[in-house]
Amino acid sequence: MAGLMEKFVTVRVVQGWGMDLNLFQFDQELTWAIFFMNADKTIYGRYGSRSEHKETTKDISIDGFKKAMEGALEIHAGYPGNKKDLAGKTGPAATWRTPELIPELRGKPNIKPADGTRGGCVHCHQAHDGEVWSVRGAKQPVTDKQVWPYPMPSLLGLSLDPKERATAASVASGSAAEKGGFKAGDRIVKLEGQPILSIADVQWVLHNAKDGSSVKAELDRGGQKATATLSVAAGWRQKDDFTWRVISWGMRHRLLGLEPLQTLSDDEKKDAGVPNAGMALRVKGLPPDWVKDKNPGGSKFKPGDVIVDVDGKKGFVTEGDLLGYLVKKPAGSAADLTVLRDKKAQKIQLTLP
Amino acid sequence: MKIGLALGSFLAATALVGQDKEALKTALKDAEVSGPWIYDDVNAGYAEAKKSAKPMLVVFR
Fold first, then answer.
1. Would residue B35 count as lying in a domain?
2. Scanning A6, A17, A283, A327, which has the fewest C-beta atoms within 10 Å of its C-beta?
3. Radius of gyration for the alpha carbons in chain A, expressed in angstroms and rounded
4. What is the mean pLDDT of residues B25-32?
5. Do B38 and A11 touch (CB under 8 A)?
């Protein structure tokens, strides 16, 4: 790897302070993320992916990283002849140019240049969190793209091999990927005309895909060229589980005033007196005192309560389903919850910030 | 080897360009290493990439 690294000018950024959000748009909740670029700020590609909290190496590997570096060098060798293909790798202008300009973050104690301590710098994930709560603070609607960012292609049935350069390890039967013509072993060469180096590059294209659109892929299938499409239906991102993301902490506290909720198993539902088909999210606990931004209405819950209905809806199977629904409701609106406490129904109304 | 460890050793092994980053480097417990890394200064990276005609690899960590 050292030989490959020497072919790049290597830069490490340890803080969000001053980060150019017009240029550096990436999944800010990763532990680390990489951009391959030209000196003129043209982006060649991204590396770094994550789909859950525990298995951080499930979506990345040294082999995959090396192959992405090799791909970036190929793009560099073809530059600027290929510049037009790379235009889509830079996103639209950000609402706030740097993290410290995001209204929700202003005045927080760690919103300052890095001093070398963990608490002494702007964390990248705070930009995402700050954006969502600033949008709510401005009484604007929160979008699916903000709640469920950088979707993994596996949501569409396309599982990529982390040891390769965006190569299909498997294609789920009946999925959008299978219907669009993908086959196991296909390497994605381009997506929407953009050269693809990694899973992160695929996520970038999907992140920016409009609901209801069809994403066009150019493939290498055993040395032969092939094409396929990925159709993204309205609401498709909502199938993703975002509760591994730091942003879910604030949602739990601010929207519900609670700690993580547990989906009950069928046996647990039976014990709690909930029909098998109904929603059943158990309150595990209330936030500790040091959590200052919690919804005061959360004090109406008790550990062990089972949420079985929200605004007359019973379709929230997971905590993510419920948080995603609540964060998209207008700021200042009410949420009416029914909980079972000792098998008796109780009504709790929350005002959403 | 897990990628976290492998990348960690690269990232922890960061040589600084510029005089004003020593305190931060010390605080982060980064060690001296192979390969010159530009530390917390993307603009210096652009300049070096232009001069050397190399592509850039920018790590946010």
1. yes
2. A6
3. 22
4. 60
5. yes
The alpha carbon of residue A268 is apart from the nearest alpha carbon of chain B, in Å, by 38
Q: Which domain holds residue B28?
A: 21-61
pLDDT tens digit string along A233-265?
999 999 999 999 999 999 999 999 999 999 999
Mean pLDDT of all residues belonging to chain A: 94
Q: What is the mean pLDDT of residues A118-143?
A: 91
The pTM for the full model equals 0.91
What are the pLDDT digits (tens) for A189-246? Answer: 999 999 999 999 999 999 999 999 999 999 999 999 999 999 999 999 999 999 999 9
* CB A319 within 8 Å of CB A260: yes
Does residue B3 form part of some domain? no
Interface A-B: count of C-beta contacts within 8 A = 134
- A48 residue type, one letter: G
- Express each pLDDT in B38-50 by its tens digit: 988 999 999 999 9
Residues of B in contact with A6 (CB under 8 A): 35
What distance in Å separates residue B48's CA from the closest CA in chain A?
7
Q: What pLDDT sits at residue A54?
A: 79
Residue A175 CB: number of other CB atoms within 10 A? Answer: 18
Q: Alpha helix locations (H) across chain A?
A: 2-5, 62-77, 83-86, 124-137, 144-147, 176-179, 199-208, 247-251, 266-272, 319-328
What is the pairing mode between strands B31-39 and A9-13? parallel
DSSP tag of B9: H
Contact B28 A37 (CB under 8 A): no
Strand ranges across the sheet with A43-47? A43-47, A33-37, B56-60, A9-13, B31-39, B13-15
Predicted complex ipTM exceeds 0.90? yes
Give the gap in angstroms from C-alpha B28 to the nearest C-alpha of chain A.
5
What's the structural domain count of chain B? 1
Residue with tokens 């969190």: A129
CATH numbers and ranges of domains, chain A: 2-142 (no CATH), 153-238 (2.30.42.10), 255-351 (2.30.42.10)
Are A37 and B55 in contact (CB < 8 Å)? yes
Residues A330-351 have pLDDT tens digits of: 999 999 999 999 999 999 999 9
Q: Is residue B36 part of a domain?
A: yes
State residue A164 phi and psi, 5-degree precision. Answer: -120, 180
Residue B54 within any structural domain of the chain: yes
